[in-house]
Amino acid sequence: KLILTAASDPRKPHRCDGFQGDLSGEYYGNIHPDELRGWLSDWVDVTVQHDTNHGDVYAVAVKPCN
């Protein structure tokens, strides 16, 4: 099972410590909900929610057993 939270629009890209200035040496970009759904296309029971008030995206998914 995957439980994920990430930054999304309209939040400005920032470092892991929240600083929004110089991002050199670190990449902490936003994830668009549709892009996340695409990454999870091989998973089942996928739920993706986008909180536009706080600029967060949430996902829960289950990796299918082969």
Topology:
Layout: E1 2-7, H1 33-39, E2 44-51, E3 56-62
Antiparallel strand pairs: 1-3, 2-3
Structure description:
With 66 residues, the chain is mainly beta. Helix content is 11%, strand content 32%. The protein is built from 1 helix and 3 strands, in the order E-H-E-E. The protein has one helix at residues 33-39; strands at 2-7, 44-51, 56-62. The protein has a 3-stranded antiparallel sheet with strand order 1-3-2, covered by helices on one side. Strand 2 and strand 3 form a beta hairpin. The two termini are 14 Å apart. The model has no long low-confidence stretch (mean pLDDT 88).
Keywords:
66 residues; mainly beta; three-stranded antiparallel beta sheet; 1 helix; 3 strands; 11% helix
Distance between the termini: 14 Å
Beta-strand content bin: 25-35%
Using DSSP, what is the number of strands?
3
| General shape | elongated
* Multimeric state: single chain
* Mean pLDDT value: 88
Q: Roughly how much helix do the residues carry, as a percent range?
A: 10-25%
Short description:
The protein is mainly β and 66 residues long.
